[in-house]
Specification:
By secondary structure, this protein is α/β, with parallel strands linked by helices. It has helices at residues 18-30, 49-59, 74-84, 104-108, 148-154, 164-171; strands at residues 5-11, 36-43, 63-68, 89-93, 116-121, 143-147, 176-181, 216-220. The protein is globular.
Amino acid sequence: MPPSLSALVPVRNVQNVLEPVLVSMLETLAELTRPVELIVIDDGSTDATIEVASEMTIEYPQIRVIRYGQARGWAEAIRVGLAEASGQILFFEEPGCRLPLEELALLWNAVAKHPVVIGRPAGAGWSGGCPSPGTAPQEDSTYQFVRRQTLQRVASRLSDAISFRQLLLQEGIAWQERIISARPRRKCEILYPTAQKPESLPERTDRPQPHASPPNYLVHLVEEKVPEYWEE
């Protein structure tokens, strides 16, 4: 039986782009496995983000919405989402991630063999940290699939100040990494903007454009074997 999947989606002041991005994410993840759920965590939005998300739950029962009044940051939003998620595998993005969702199938093929599978942009440097609120997004921000047990192990140490890869190094957790060379996301596709004001975002009707050419990628393998999901 394939593993269940929960996407943790922290959002803040993204009313103009939330609907098309969530639809795209749901369609992409549903092609990987079933069941799939999207846990949308509204991190103190001051616009209509929560209204847009709540309306979507009527048409898309796979979407669940969590809201708290005051912004607490990306790391706390991930912890809140983890507590509510039911999936065996968790998917989430770091703030400022611009990688196309279409490449997630490249990562999913490895989730049965590795506790963490990470995708990051090709040619991006690694400063060891995530962007702080009010700063420009990092070009090396990643997205990842993580086993529930692994994320629970490191959840208390998640921080807006360091990258997820840096945290894994500190905890001694190995991962498989795929370096993806592809068209980066446009700014309107970032769900957790850290450097943009809400009024600068495009209209909700703005949708991503298809790739101009197929991506190239390199694969870094970590020879750490872990039990299959159905053997745990």
